[in-house]
């Protein structure tokens, strides 16, 4: 089981085991039960997991998704990226992690691209159903599809074909940008009929979503192990 730690002016959830690390960027759930379970599972795989808190103590443990969605619409990209960079610093400088990757879901998948494009310490990028629409909503300052071309690390992206937040054409544009990079392998998982947020247990009442996650997660774990191995 992990613990809550104070990093600068923010709280984060930490499951610590060794010198390989992953920064976890949650979906709309915030640091809810499910994200903590994933962090604990990574620790069980020998990977230290540190989770960014997008909503400052609010999560599906104590708030509705509608309330969290309202908070998301107020989020500032630059402030969020500064917080995430501070957590990367904490993983490397304070916890002594020699290799650190980043994994995000939905809104966190978008930030995983933006962060890795700016900070080349990142050893891998895992993005589950990232919210990267080409038509930017008002609270998006940056185009994650365009910026993904600056990522130098290997990337694994999981996309559901029935994603209503990110049209198939936008995913294809993301693939084109990622595959045009001169460094950094691109791994793609594509799930016909699955919905945006298929990782979320609350969506597993639909077999197509549960089956997508059942296939996707072990591959992501193997990718994270491979890209942080030996550290």
Automatic annotation (TrEMBL):
InterPro entries linked to this entry: AB_hydrolase_fold (IPR029058), Dienelactn_hydro (IPR002925), Dienelactone_hydrolase-like (IPR051049)
Pfam families with a match to the protein in the record: DLH (PF01738)
Ranges where the Dienelactone hydrolase domain occurs: 19-226
Gene3D superfamilies referenced in this protein's UniProt entry, alphabetically: alpha/beta hydrolase
Molecular function via GO: hydrolase activity
PANTHER family in alphabetical order: ALPHA_BETA-HYDROLASES SUPERFAMILY PROTEIN, CARBOXYMETHYLENEBUTENOLIDASE-RELATED
Record's protein name: Carboxymethylenebutenolidase
